[in-house]
Design goal:
The complex is a heterodimer of chains A (253) and B (259). With 253 residues, chain A is α/β, with parallel strands linked by helices. Chain A contains eight helices and ten strands. In chain B, helix 7 packs across helix 8 and helix 9 runs antiparallel to helix 10. The chains are: A alpha/beta (253), B mainly alpha (259). Bound molecules: adenosine-5'-diphosphate and magnesium ion.
Chain lengths: 253, 259
C-alpha cells in the first residue's frame, strides 16, 4: 500500500529560477493495483516516480510504502527507467543477478532464479548475450526481469515502452500484464498514450499541466483480458482524451 | 570478397614499406657518408651484429624494466586517484588545483630531482617514466568516472547498491573501463617516449635509450638508427598487444572498437 500526502517539489534552476514540479499531490494506491500516470509532458510525472523510488527528495509532504516512510531507494520498490539502463558490461543473465549478488545469494541459486525470470519475459535463450546485442524492446524486458527478481512490492515504470515500435509495444503490454497477474505487484506506470493506459490500468491518474497536480483519478472497471476497441474502452478513452486534451492545451498556452 | 580486399590492403602495405626502404637505400648510397645517413643495409648489418652478440636483448630487457617500474607505479597511483577524484567531489576540489599545477611540467624537467631523490638507479629512470605516464591515466580515469551514465548509477541504487564502495566497484569502475584503458594506452605511449631521456643520464650501461646516446657520442650513426628503429618497433608491439588484450578479454562487452 502506497500513500502520498500533501507532496510538493520545487526545482531550483542554475539561473536561480524556481520550477514548481509538483504541487500538493495526494494519492493512495492499494496493493496489487495497476495505476497509470498520464499528463502533459513536463508536468512532473517522472519527478513523482523518482521521489517514490527514493532517488529524489520532496520539499514537503509524507510518503509511505506499507506504512514505512520513504527515505531513499529500497528493495520494496523496483524501477524500470525510460532510457535503456542495462549494465552494458554484464550479460543479460548477470544483469538480472545483480541485486541477488548484493544480497550474497550463492551463484548457482541466483542464476537459477534469474533464469526463471528470464523465462517469464521470454528471453531465456539470450541469457549469455550482451545488452548491445538486444533490440530496444528486449532490453526493456530484461530491465523488467531485473527489477522483478528483487521481489519489490511496488514496480515503478517510467514510459518503459516509449521508444519501441507499435507492434512490439502491444506485445510488451500483454507480457507485462501476464507478469503482473502472475506475480501480483503494485505497478505505477507512466505513459503518454491514452490507449496504453486504458488497456493496462485499474486506475488512471491524470495530471494537470505544470505545476503538476492530480486533476482526476479515473477507475477503469473493465474486465480482463481487455478488448482494446470495446464500447466501454472507447468511452473511457474518450473521457481521458478530453481531460488530457484540456491540459495539453493549457500547457501550450 | 573480404579476403580479397584484405590481400589487396596487405599488398599495398608491403609495396609502400618496400618502396620507402629502396628510396632510403638509394639516397644513402648517393650521399655515401655513413655518419650522415646510414643505409638500410648498414642498419641491417648493425642489427644482426647486435642480435648475435646478445647485446640488443640485454638493452631491451633493461629498458623494459625501467618502463615496467614507471608504468606500474603510474597505474597504481593514477587509477585510484582518478577514481577518488571522479567520485568524491570534495577530493576533486582539494586535489585538482595541485594536479593542474604539476601536470604542465614536462616529465624531462624532473630529471634533476629524479637523480637527487633516487640516485643513478633504475628507480630514477622509472620515476621519469612515471611522471610521463601518470597524468594521461589519471585524467582518463577521472573523466570516465565523471561520465558514468546517471541512469546506470540510479539503476544500481534502486537494485540495492547504495554504499559508495559498491557503487564505485560494481557500477562506475566497469562503466569507466574503456576510458581507463585509453588512459593506460596513452600513458604507455608517453612513458615509452620518456625512456630515451630517462636513460640519458646514465642509470645503467645498457638500455635502448642509453645506447642511442652512447653510439651517438662515438659517431656510430648506423647503430643509433638501429636502436631508434628498435625503440619504435617495441612501442608498436606494446601498443598492439595491449589493444589485443583489452579487446579480446577485458572489454568484450563493447559494441565497437573504442580503444
Ligand atoms: N533536475 C532538475 N532541475 C531542474 N528542473 C527539473 C529537474 N528535473 C525536472 N525538472 C523540471 O520539472 C518539471 C517536471 O519534469 P518531469 O518530472 O520530468 O516531467 P514529465 O516526466 O511529466 O514530463 C519540468 O518542467 C522539468 O523541466
Ligand atoms: Mg518524464
Amino acid at each position: 500500500m502506497l500513500s502520498i500526502k500533501n507532496l510538493n517539489k520545487i526545482y531550483h534552476t542554475e539561473e536561480g529560477d524556481e520550477v514548481v514540479a509538483l504541487s500538493d499531490i495526494n494519492l493512495y494506491v492499494a496493493d496489487k493495483e495497476f495505476v497509470c500516470f498520464i499528463g502533459p509532458s513536463g508536468c512532473g510525472k517522472t519527478t513523482l516516480l523518482r521521489i517514490i523510488a527514493g532517488l529524489e527528495k520532496p520539499d514537503s509532504g509524507t510518503l509511505t510504502v506499507n506504512k514505512e516512510p520513504i527515505t531513499g531507494p529500497g528493495p520494496d520498490r523496483g524501477m524500470v527507467f525510460q532510457e535503456y539502463s542495462l549494465f552494458p558490461w554484464r550479460t543479460v543473465l548477470k544483469n538480472i543477478t545483480f541485486s541477488l549478488e548484493l544480497k550474497k545469494i550463492p551463484k548457482s541459486e541466483r542464476e537459477k532464479i534469474a533464469r526463471e525470470f528470464l523465462e517469464l519475459v521470454g528471453l531465456l535463450e539470450f541469457a549469455d548475450s550482451y545488452p548491445h546485442e538486444l533490440s530496444g524492446g528486449m532490453k526493456q524486458r530484461v530491465a523488467i526481469a531485473r527489477a522483478m527478481v528483487n521481489d519489490p512490492d511496488v514496480l515503478l515504470m517510467d514510459e518503459p515502452f516509449g521508444a519501441v515500435d507499435a507492434q512490439t509495444r502491444n506485445r510488451l503490454q500483454h507480457e507485462l500484464l501476464n507478469i503482473w497477474e502472475r506475480k501480483k505487484k503494485t505497478v505505477l506506470f507512466i505513459t503518454h498514450s491514452v490507449d496504453e493506459a486504458v488497456f493496462l490500468a485499474d486506475k488512471v491518474v491524470v495530471f494537470t499541466a505544470r505545476p503538476g497536480r492530480v486533476k482526476e483519478v479515473i477507475n477503469v472497471d473493465l474486465p480482463r483480458p481487455r478488448e482494446r476497441t470495446s464500447f466501454e474502452a472507447n468511452a473511457v478513452r474518450e473521457h481521458l482524451l478530453a481531460s488530457l486534451g484540456a491540459e495539453i492545451q493549457a500547457a501550450i498556452d | 570478397m573480404g579476403q580479397f580486399l584484405d590481400m589487396r590492403k596487405r599488398t599495398l602495405e608491403i609495396t609502400s614499406v618496400a618502396s620507402a626502404i629502396i628510396i632510403w637505400e638509394i639516397i644513402a648510397r648517393i650521399i655515401n657518408k655513413k655518419y650522415i645517413l646510414p643505409s638500410f643495409t648498414d642498419v641491417g648489418a648493425a642489427f644482426l651484429k647486435l642480435v648475435s652478440g646478445g647485446e640488443l636483448y640485454r638493452d631491451i630487457i633493461t629498458s623494459l624494466n625501467f618502463f615496467v617500474i614507471g608504468m606500474g607505479v603510474a597505474i597504481a597511483v593514477g587509477i585510484p586517484l582518478g577514481v577518488m577524484m571522479g567520485w568524491f567531489k570534495t577530493i576533486d576540489k582539494a586535489i585538482d588545483p595541485i594536479i593542474e599545477m604539476i601536470r604542465p611540467i614536462p616529465p624531462l624537467a624532473w630529471i634533476p630531482f629524479a637523480i637527487l631523490w633516487f640516485g643513478l638507479t633504475k628507480y630514477a629512470a622509472g620515476f621519469v617514466i612515471f611522471v610521463g605516464a601518470v597524468f594521461p591515466i589519471l585524467v582518463n580515469t577521472y573523466t570516465g568516472f565523471r561520465n558514468t551514465p546517471k541512469v546506470l548509477v540510479e539503476s544500481g541504487m534502486v537494485l540495492g547498491c547504495i554504499k559508495n564502495r559498491d557503487l564505485i566497484f560494481r557500477i562506475a569502475l566497469p562503466a569507466a573501463l574503456p576510458a581507463i584503458a585509453t588512459g593506460v594506452r596513452v600513458g604507455m605511449g608517453v612513458g615509452w617516449m620518456c625512456v630515451v631521456a630517462a636513460e640519458m643520464f646514465g642509470v645503467s650501461t645498457y638500455g635502448i635509450g642509453w645506447k642511442i646516446w652512447h653510439w651517438n657520442d662515438l659517431h656510430h650513426m648506423d647503430l643509433v638508427l638501429t636502436y631508434m628503429l628498435v625503440l619504435g618497433f617495441i612501442a608498436l608491439v606494446i601498443d598492439r598487444l595491449f589493444r589485443y588484450i583489452v579487446q579480446e578479454w577485458w572489454l568484450k562487452w563493447q559494441t565497437g572498437i573504442v580503444v
